[in-house]
């Protein structure tokens, strides 16, 4: 493997990078510019307004989301074909009905400042957004239940986790994070309403994607849902409990926060329609203080 001529190593390398494989979306993706060079793009591609005073081209790098998913699926091509064989499914009839569950993760990488550098002035913290293909299943024609043909054995391993976007930003900087991940969210939304047509095992097959935001820690969930930070008296990211209520009642909680409700509360916070004092207003919105920008599904990993 090692002692191959350089050009064959180069072509092997190209296959591993997003942007190499042919694919199609039906219907075509909305809000995803087809004119971008597919490959590594500026993290602010797809975002029109300018972010702060950091030079836009230094702040983030990412792959286009759909292109990265295609590359990840092609990586798993053998596993998909093995899964079909093991389950006794006829390869040639299994061309549609594939469902792919994606786990999304996003976390700060801490201080990455240049110690003696004279490079461009960028924030000294970095954040990485990545995804893992958790499972692939297929519902065969006429069958009621879906059959799982691939399941990630080590879902929390570094090896199954694929980086999508690297950014110079502090994870507490809600505005910059929103600006960089906004286009990623728009692409994800578009993919939910479309099917990917991709050649796997020599046949064109169609895939649908489901996204689960189970790889965020509490700090990131609060950031993405526009909640007050962890010192808030509203302790829970899924319900409206205050610290006092939670200490009285450790058992009976229902999930009351959802993305759309948080958006409504932000609007109330912003417009203060009842002309309340800051304290009354805060009590009404239960700790929502910024505009939530990424839907986090309350599901356990």
Automatic annotation (TrEMBL):
It comes from the Eukaryota. Residues 100-232 form the V(D)J recombination-activating protein 1 RNase H domain. Residues 1-23 form the V(D)J recombination-activating protein 1 DNA-binding domain. GO terms for biological process: adaptive immune response; B cell differentiation; chromatin organization; T cell differentiation in thymus; V(D)J recombination. Residues 234-296 form the V(D)J recombination-activating protein 1 ZnC2 domain. InterPro entries: RAG1 (IPR024627), RAG1_DNA-bd (IPR058552), RAG1_pre-RNase_H (IPR058553), RAG1_RNase_H (IPR058554), RAG1_ZnC2 (IPR058555). GO terms for cellular component: DNA recombinase complex; endodeoxyribonuclease complex; nucleus. Residues 24-96 form the V(D)J recombination-activating protein 1 pre-RNase H domain. GO terms for molecular function: double-stranded DNA endonuclease activity; histone binding; protein homodimerization activity; sequence-specific DNA binding; ubiquitin protein ligase activity; zinc ion binding. PANTHER family: V(D)J RECOMBINATION-ACTIVATING PROTEIN 1 (PTHR11539:SF0), VDJ RECOMBINATION ACTIVATING PROTEIN 1 RAG1 (PTHR11539). This is RAG-1. The lineage of its organism: Eukaryota, Metazoa, Chordata, Craniata, Vertebrata.
């Amino acid at each position: 493997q090692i002692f191959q001529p350089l050009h064959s190593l180069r072509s092997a390398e190209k296959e591993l990078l997003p942007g190499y494989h042919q694919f199609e979306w039906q219907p075509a993706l909305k809000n995803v510019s087809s004119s971008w060079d597919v490959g590594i793009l500026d993290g602010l591609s797809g975002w029109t307004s300018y972010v702060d005073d950091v030079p836009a081209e230094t702040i983030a790098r990412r792959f286009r989301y759909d292109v990265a998913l295609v590359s990840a699926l092609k990586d798993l091509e053998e596993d998909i074909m093995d899964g079909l064989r093991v389950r006794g499914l006829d390869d040639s009839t299994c061309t549609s009905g594939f469902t792919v569950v994606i786990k999304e993760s996003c976390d700060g990488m801490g201080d990455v400042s240049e110690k003696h550098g004279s490079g461009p002035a960028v924030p000294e913290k970095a954040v990485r957004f990545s995804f893992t293909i958790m499972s692939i299943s297929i519902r065969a024609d006429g069958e009621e239940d879906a059959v799982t043909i691939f399941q990630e054995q080590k879902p929390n391993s570094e090896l199954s986790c694929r980086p999508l976007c690297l950014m110079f930003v502090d994870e507490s900087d809600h505005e910059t994070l929103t600006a960089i991940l906004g286009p990623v969210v728009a692409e994800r939304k578009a993919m939910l309403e479309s099917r990917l047509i991709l050649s796997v095992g020599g046949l064109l097959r169609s895939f649908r994607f489901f996204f689960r935001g189970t790889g965020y820690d509490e700090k990131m969930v609060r950031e993405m849902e526009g909640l007050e930070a962890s010192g808030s008296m509203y302790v829970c990211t899924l319900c409206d409990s205050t610290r006092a209520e939670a200490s009285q009642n450790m058992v009976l909680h229902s999930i009351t926060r959802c993305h759309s409700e948080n958006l409504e509360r932000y609007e109330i916070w912003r417009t203060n329609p009842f002309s309340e004092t800051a304290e009354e207003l805060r009590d009404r919105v239960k700790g929502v203080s910024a505009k939530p920008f990424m839907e986090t599904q309350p599901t356990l990993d």
